[in-house]
Amino acid sequence: MASITPITAEDRRRLWHPRGTLCAVCRQPTRGLGWFDPHRSKRPRPSVWFCSMPCQSFWTRLARERFAMVDLTEEERAAITATMKRVALLMDEIGWATPLADLTEAQVRALIEEAVEGFREAMSDIARAQTPEVPF
Asked: Which Pfam family, any one, appears in the UniProt record (predicted)?
């Protein structure tokens, strides 16, 4: 008869931790903070994961207000505006008269990275500003 090794706490953590999942607010890698739909009893329940308590609190507040809405929130609009400023600075370097078809792969990649990083940072900053500091 084969011996059965007991499951350790580390083994259990590996089973539930959402490796490779991005934060639902700012798109950083998650750190084990999550939410699932308590109203659905069938598994798998819809769930989202977060990188920090401010992002989790921010998403929860928005979910209560507009869970079924697909329109942009005021916070997302503000993040897009902040991102546009960052992308505009990069376009100043590239040149506004340059057609998109004439951009190099590196320039297109830089524009996309600037847009994604700018939006992520802006959403993270908004979440931190609207969530009180956790005392621990």
From this structure: DUF6511
Distance (Å, whole) CA 133 – CA 136: 9
Q: Are 51 and 33 in contact (CB under 8 A)?
A: yes
Query: What pLDDT score was predicted for residue 14?
Result: 57
DSSP H or E stretch at residue 49: strand 47-50
Tell me the pLDDT tens digit for each residue of 67-125: 555 677 888 899 999 999 999 999 999 999 988 889 999 999 999 999 999 999 998 88
Spatial CA neighbour of 94 closest among 116, 79, 109:
109
Dihedral sign of CA atoms 133, 127, 25, 39 in order: positive
Contact 126, 58 (CB under 8 A): yes
Q: How far apart are alpha carbons 58 and 55 in whole angstroms?
A: 5
